[in-house]
Amino acid sequence: MRQARRKTKKKIWGFGVAAFFIPVLIMFLVYLSLGIYWGSERSVLASDAFAQFSNFHASFNNVLHGEQSIFYTWNASLGLNFWSLISYYLGGIFTPLVFFFKNQNIPDALYLITLVKIGSAGLAFWFYAKETFKLNQWSILSLSVSYALMSFSIAQSEVIMWLDAMVYLPLIILGINRIFENKKPTLLFVAYFMLFVSNFYFGFMIGVFSFLYFIAKLFLNKKEAKKRVVPYFLTAFTAGISSMILILPSILDLKSNGETLTKLTMLKTEATSAWDIIAKNMIGSYDTTKYGSIPFIYIGLIPLVFCIFYFITKKISLNEKIAYGSIMAFIFLSFYLDPLNLFWHGMHAPNMFLFRFSFLFSFTVIMLAGYGWEKFEKEDSIYFIGTSIILIVLFVLAKLTTAPEHFDFISLESLALTILFMILYILLMSLYHQGKFLMKHLAVLLFFLMAGEAFLNTNFMLNGILDDWNYASRSLYSDPYKSIDSLVNRAEKENENNFYRLESLDDVSSNDTFNYGYSGISMFSSVRNRHSSGLLDTLGYRSQGTNLNIRYDNNTVMMDSLFGIRHNISKQPVNKFGYEVIESKGEYQLYQNSLALPLGMLTDKDLYNLKLPDTDNLGSQTMLMNQLSNLTTEYFDFIKPKLVKSENTKIIPKGDQKVLYQEKKPDIGKKLTFNVLVPAGQQAYISIFPTDFGLLDGSSAIVTSQGVTNRSQIDITGQYYNLGYFSQESTIQFTVEFTGSPEVEVIEPTVVTLDTNHYQTAIRNIQQKDVKFKVDKRHAYANVNLVEDQVLFTTIPYDKGWTARIDGKKVKTKPFEKGLLTFNVPKGKHDIELSYLPPGLNLGFACLFLGIATFSGYVLFFYNPQSKRKSSNTNSSSSRRRSK
Q1: Mean pLDDT of the chain
Q2: Cβ count near 834 (within 10 Å)
């Protein structure tokens, strides 16, 4: 008897193994069809995966190998709270798999992690379904595959950190079910905790959804409501408290760095219509994950039919339909009502990848489908057939009666496949209860049909990503790695452990600093220090709006010096004063800036009286440099260049020094050629500044001077395009070409020159008072010997997590213009130490221990074997999953 049970248990868990590996196999095959596999030339990096997730995982790999602090990174736009970055991008149990990869092979790491997460979602749903639904194992496996490969997960699979949520959602719902069965709440605690520390953003969405689910369960179990409230809320509370180890520092970081909520400006969401729910339930309905998309809700045709059956059949009580239907209705309304839509997103409008909560609708569909399917019997075939026919009609109407451009993403192939599968399901389900033998084999056949449907939809979704974003070539990521890494290592040796910064003029992505382990300026991240980025924008580095981006490109060499840019890596000659080549590797050269300043500079208290103008970055540069150098010098001059030639360009003066450049022939660049006389000893730039950033539509400027070509997207990078350094008076000719849009309006281009003699004098003055820091992970050390009290100005982003100590005694820090760290240093010889810990981390650790201890004590006290025996009489087998 015992042996038979073991065989049965082993057989059941064999379906669990299949629930993991079948979605993995389907993903593997579809990726393979796209030319994506382990070591393939085409990588899994699409959309933000190339610029963000690959580099952030590489940075986490550096942490695991002891090369970087887990709390702070210097390799992110001057410096960043890395603990906060982890909480949004890198949390969870899957990320540490990068340990087994070199950073050069991160595309393979993300490929593997994506497959593992998809498979884990299937396994988690199988575990939930086998304890929840009275269905045979083949049917449970069918639902598990459908869940793992739902459109939301696959269409947004490049956003790898969101996939963790799909793993924990069914386990959380199962955990709530177990509470109503008077079982231990351990699963719920672990699932909540793992969800919250994996991604607090999706943790909020699932937290709200699971609370609504719990309220529905209370509504259906009114007699036992009092007995279930305490276990649920105590479990949810202790899991939430425990997760404060990551969430609390993140909340404090977001609060202190100026993250703002989105204002409500409309009632109805944009781009949505009444037919969306029908259209997005067809096989292969991929529109876009950019702006203007509608929710991804497809999770399979069988789940859709059985979800509808759930509401039709009289075998399920009206109370249940009201309880669970209310949750579905709330999510449905959230697709159309903007206040509800924003609520699910934490009152912060998403930047593309819209309706990020739509997976909750899909889960509700498949959950109710399971409840409906277990009630399905022979006499219900007419309901199945009738529902399927109505759906076929609705699918056809959605395609044929709406404007062609409205659902242009629904191809005739997609419609035909949807109808074909509906017909096949009708045939199968009409025979589903024609004897046990036939029923068993039809369940197997139904599984293969549903898996085939999931395969086709996955193929459509991944091809949609390919068309929408493109999967980047591995060579774009990996080929430059050896050369750049070698030059970074040379720069490291050149500086003898003194802190320095480096920037690439031919970067692989905007987040190269994370990957290669050097400090720079550029960054593209939802987790950022908005105050430091805003100050950098004031000083000429572009960081507009919410400071999602900060770019190094197209600023003056004076700011290079101030922010310690000691090295540039470039494929072309740099042509910047003070820079010279010190090494070459492959296509790249390493340049060294002899005028780069260290991390700290001494000045007086007049620093705090400076008010840098928001709209005059050269004026801001001048004011700050004069303060630090004790000078009153003008560094910049302005020269109007002479236009000598234009190609394919209609030039329209707009007044107030504004000019509009329109193309004469479409899709051909607007090219302008200028002459200018540059005085001796000048570093020259052409200033290109758009009049309205919102109207650029991806416009780029290509500036060619002295045989060097610089191309930049106008709205992302700075405005000062380098024309070169001129030791002698020179008349030069340069070209500016605008591409990417039919027209572009800018302030009339002006040549800006920097007097390098005045610039050198200022730097030499500052160097007499500089403070060299040695940096070790989350610490920075320096020594000073002062003849009078001074203010130590640093180019470290101001953050409340920094602690400054002088000779071991803590001193107060103060922000300069909200963005940079400063503090007072008394006269005399001193040892200075700066250390960083994320604000709230210590309290977060205390919360972790408190939460785990409280929950453990609760479980031991209320769920010990003795109390379990006492309560066994109150638990019947009918309460195993839900009230009826």
Answers
A1: 92
A2: 23
Strands 42-46 and 471-473: antiparallel
670 pLDDT tier (thresholds 50, 70, 90): very high
The single-letter code of the amino acid at 154 is I
Quick one: pLDDT at residue 881?
40
Matching residue, tokens 């997103």: 345
CA 633 to chain centre: 44
* SS3 of 653-697: EEECCEEEEEECCCCCCEEEEEEEEECCCEEEEEEEEECCHHHCC
262-280: pLDDT as tens digits: 888 889 998 888 899 999 9
Residue 717: how many CA atoms within 13 Å on its side-chain side?
Answer: 23
The model's confidence at residue 3, banded by pLDDT at 50, 70 and 90, is low
pLDDT at 4: 53
Beta-sheet pairing, 779-786 with 743-755: unpaired
- Does position 380 have pLDDT exceeding 80, yes or no? yes
Give the span between the Cα atoms of 227 and 871, in whole angstroms. Answer: 12
Residue 437: the pLDDT is 60
656 dihedral zone (left: phi>0; alpha: psi -120 to 50; beta):
left
Each residue's pLDDT tens digit, 672-713? 999 999 999 999 999 999 998 877 877 899 999 999 999 999
Instruction: Give backbone dihedrals phi and psi of 841, rounded to 5 degrees, phi first.
Output: -65, -45
In single-letter form, the type of residue at position 869 comes to R
User: Distance between CA atoms of 42 and 801, rounded to whole angstroms?
Assistant: 41
Please report the pLDDT score of residue 11 as a whole number: 73
Evaluate if residue 431 carries a pLDDT over 90: no
Check: CB of residue 184 under 8 Å from CB of residue 235.
Answer: no
CA distance 503 to 718: 14
Residue 760 buriedness (CB in 10 A; 0-12 / 13-18 / 19+): middle
Is the model's pLDDT at 536 over the cut of 60?
yes
Residue 496's pLDDT band (cuts 50, 70, 90)? confident
785 φ/ψ angles, rounded to the nearest 5 degrees = -140, 100
State how far the alpha carbon of 49 is from the alpha carbons of 44, 198, 263, 516, 842, in Å: 8, 17, 29, 17, 32
Domains and CATH numbers, the chain: 260-431 (no CATH), 480-596 (no CATH), 636-759 (2.60.120), 763-836 (2.60.40.1180)
User: What are the Cα distances from residue 733, in Å, to 196, 737, 747, 780, 836?
Assistant: 58, 14, 20, 46, 50
Amino acid at 127: F
Buried b (16+ CB within 10 A) or exposed e, 2-20: eeeeeeeeeeeeebbebbb
Integer CA distances (angstroms), 285 to 148, 353, 418, 723, 793, in order: 17, 15, 10, 49, 55
* DSSP class per residue in 753-772: EEEHHHHHHHHHHHHTTEE-
